[in-house]
Amino acid sequence: MTHLLIDILRNSILITGLVTVMMMLIESIELETKNAFFTSLKKSKFGQTVFSALLGLIPGCIGGFASVSLYTGRVISFGALTAMMIASCGDEAFMLIAMRPDKAPMIFFWLFLIATGCGAMIDFAFKKLKIKDFRDRRNDIVPPAMALRQHCHGHRHQDKDGLPANDDGGSSTACGQTDLRKSRKMSIRRTVLFLGVIIFITALAIGILDHEHAGIPDAAPGSFDFLNETWMQYLFAALGLVVLAFIVFASDRFIEENLWEHIVKRHLPVIFCWTFGILLVVEFGLSHLDISRWISDNTALMILLAAAIGIIPESGPHLIFVTLYASGVVPLPVLLASCISQDGHSSLPLLAESKKSFAVAKLLNFLIALIVGYGCFLL
Q: Coil, strand or helix: which one is 95?
């Protein structure tokens, strides 16, 4: 019991930390580039879909977390988010590569085609039907310069950074307040952010937050294990160092409003609580449920079961379908239905951020899984 609770807590911290670092990085890049970094991606819905699907293909859940962060930051569309969820197999991707390296590339290729095609069609349908996305307007990322323009709309002149300017061309105070854009002091909040990111980077680097991938063989001693998320955690640790640089050199206004008020106070607690709660319910529920007993020799029923079980936002229950496929017990349509419907832990932060987006995306994934699964079965 204690071991299970510790593992759930470790996974919750890992997921929350990765999403938080991604959100901080996105906001910091938008500040430094004056929103130009994601401009080209925002202009192309299909480009967003392809990019998000590629993130989903990254084994494990880290690519999915990045896609969810981009979605809640209004960088990618709902169709692109759905494409990630279709392409993502969570931790099951590691097991599939390990058990069937001859079939895995072909399966990932088909998942990518299905994901990009369905994501593009979803965006097209939303546009034609004039359906708005389901994101909470409170979660919008508002760059500091834009927020200042909205707050000080009465000023007629602005400098090149979008800040109110005096008649002599210099930056003035904002609506009678001190210009915090250039103010940089080592405040308590800046110190807490800096130390928090340092601790998270250290935990990633030394493996404190590692979690086991059931059914995946260990690498030979001294060899590089591509089938392990460790190298991705090193990558995110490196991105965390970039975030540290922004924390050190960013203005007080950006630290206070964007990083502290918006991400730390609003997003981080919600993401952690929902992630911990869902993992707790799922883990304790699965410990008293033997999903293997549900499996029968009826392929049509197994496609339905694979798609239905895929709704569970967890890596683990879906491993049985990978195992059965690798053993030759079930055909490809069952595995495809499972892979399309499930996305490991990737959707947990989405559940915390936008419950409507989570519900609609999961429903679409379930329906697409059934269509593809039964379509392949009939062919």
A: helix
